[in-house]
From TrEMBL:
Residues 29-373 form the Leucine-binding protein domain. Belongs to the leucine-binding protein family. Keywords: Signal. This is ABC transporter substrate-binding protein. CDD domains: PBP1_SBP-like. It holds the Pfam family Peripla_BP_6. Residues 1-26 form the signal peptide.
Amino acid sequence: MKSFGKGLLALLAVAAILVAAPAARAAEPIVIAQLAGLTGPLEAYAKQAVNGFQMGIEYATGGTNQVLGRPIKIIVKDTQLKPDRGKQLLTEAYKDDGAVLAVGPVSSAVALACLPVAKEFKRILIVEPAVADSITGSAWNRYIFRTGRNSSQDAVSNAMAIAKPGVCIATLAQDYAFGRDGVSAYKAAAEKAGAKVVHEEYVPIKTTDFTAPAQRIIQAMKGLKCQEKYLFVIWAGGNNPLGKLHAMKLDSKYGIQLASGGNILDALKLYKPLVGMRGATYYYYDIPKNKINDWLKAEHQKRYGGPPDFFTCGGMSAAIAVVEALKKANSTDTEKLIKVMEGMHFMTPKGEMVFRPEDHQALQSMYAFKMTADPKLAWGVPELTKELTYKDMDIPIRNKR
């Protein structure tokens, strides 16, 4: 009898372990890695993306930071803007940290180095906010999604802001994937709208003296019979040349107007004197009118003492996409996630986005603007002239699927 009792107790103990095991597994954190270039010239972008992602997880989970009954654990890894380091950190995240997916990075060069890692480990990488077209184009694979806008979205929206027959445009950009992809897409969109791109200038990322490229642009546009002349600038990070170009009085001396896309608030301080400059932007906190953006603005003001910025919005959008995908798939399995994410519509601080099935690029609104100045604000204000929804823009598919 004692033997029977001991056996029964042993069986009950084993049963208890078997019952507890799935519950323990269910409570394991869902690990998400975020690659961010927290060291280097894009540090401001990275910090915004990290803050935005954390706020987005909070918002999308109703403040619980849990999904599928499991806590979400975010591991932030500093790529230092080095492609080899980014590749190594993503490998570490998938292999050692058990990340079910990853988000980031900031730099297009780092992102391009990371794409094969996602394919090797068969895990999703949601690119946010790296912009180069090739990420969802020639270098793309099926494990890559992007919530950030791409160069073509920047280009098409900025072209729609100024391009038309009779307009001549020169471009100035940094000499790496972001700049060259951006100009290539911009040129195609501008010329499709009837404008002529007559000159392209590419300079090193750390350039601070723009006298020589400006002189080449002036010479290239000299004597052209155009109704309007523009210099369109594509720039990321520090040393933004717009202020210096404005000081050269290109408009009053040579009839060349400046044009550029939107930027983070610190960069918009340089835009304040550029009243009347036209372009298109990915985000400015007062433009979108929806409840998610209202929440983001209010909470960001409480926590950080100021309005949310470009990449805060981007980080939040990526986080919402992650939580929505996990809910819809009811799983962390990569194949199930891909199945629900292709064509998935989700709401963000910018309004609706949708992952295009063909290349997993998030189609989204962009905002044409005219630059204004508000004496109460330290930065220039991009005043909305037209919201360009994803239905208004013809964004090319550039992958080889």
